[in-house]
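#help-structures

NK: newbie question. if I give both the sequence and a SMILES, will the prediction place the ligand too? trying with pyridoxal-5'-phosphate
OV: yes, paste both and it writes out the complex. here, I ran yours:
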Amino acid sequence: MTAISREQALALDAADPLAALRSRFVINDPELIYVDGNSLGRLSRDTRERLVSLIDDEWGSGLIRGWEHWVELPTQVGDQIAATLLGAAAGQTVVGDSTSVNLYKLACAAIDARPGRTVVVTDDDNFPTDLYILQGICERAGLELRIHRTDIDAGITAESLTSSLGPEVALVCLSHVAYRSGVLADMAAITAAVHGCGALMLWDLSHSVGSVPIQLDAHDVDLATGCTYKYVNGGPGSPAFAYMNARLLGSMPQPIWGWFGQREQFAMGGDYDPVPTVGQLQIGTPQVLQIAGLESSVALLAEAGIGALREKGVALTELIIALADEWLTAFGVRVASPRTATTRGSHIVLEHPAAWQLCQALIARNVIPDYRNPNRVRIGPAPIYTRYVDVWDAMDRLRSILESGEWEQFDSEPSRVT
Ligand SMILES: *Cc1c(COP(=O)(O)O)cnc(C)c1O
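OV: that's the protein plus ligand as structure tokens.
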């Protein structure tokens, strides 16, 4: 795509088949340009209504009687996410707990399933919580955590990963879309390479789910988890999903034994006897409010269709790159994301030495991006509610901030939450 005029951006919006979906979201401030959908998605009207009715009617009036159907929500919404976004058949996905906790459960289960193997592999470009969780597991179990070196802009490839694989490897855990660059890893090739050495593959889908079509079953992925509050729009703290391939179910117990994974839970038996299904990944009482809200959020993505969302995500990110090349290169801004659409997710990373200050200046101009170390402005235009003109205006304001030097008024020290 070449840089286009604002009128042309408006014309793209007029022709956009997803355009009507924007009105299904709560947009209280029409002036605000929100390009941080990869950190916290917007609230949809359906999700809001569902939450209000759950609080007032189901909890408020129904009280404990609600559990008759609430108890099915984790697997029901898990199957819905699997069918809509993960390319996975029913019965392999459950919703609950955070991505961090699910990484712990799934990684431990995988390690136990490969006795005698002493190495867990990840890469230094993985998300911090993934690294910490794996460090903790390896330290307790006396295993080696092998951290593969990945160039943060090029991303991980199957070819490069081979040097870290071998018969001693039990598990490989990687992110599908890299949070700092937007690189989309080749799930098929990497999973095949990991299986080639007899190890299990655990994918973190936090930055790809809801923005990139995923084929867990077709690529024979073993395990996966990911956040639902980013492109899936489940709201702050909405629980993650956990996927375990059907061929592993019943033979790979996860390590936190809780009563929601128990056969005949309400028999209240004294000994743990887990269900042989994906339900064993459950621990305790599910986050009913958030899972119910999430169901409505996923239904909206299903209405859009992941294919159409991906197509628009590609077009929006192409537009950001074209405008950055045309307007921002002269000010020392570098596009740190891949230029080939097939190898990137739905966010674009712009690198500049004053990235933190640029983010603050954008926020002061009513544009919300986010900042990531080192020196990166992330622009994450969620395709379901972001217009072409939003992206155009955001980039135009960034150009003007660089031209005027107004970013220099902002503190150069990042705050606690970035
Ligand atoms: C956002 C994100 C997380 C966050 O995990 P939580 O347990 O929900 O805090 C983990 N991994 C990746 C790759 C992420 O992008």
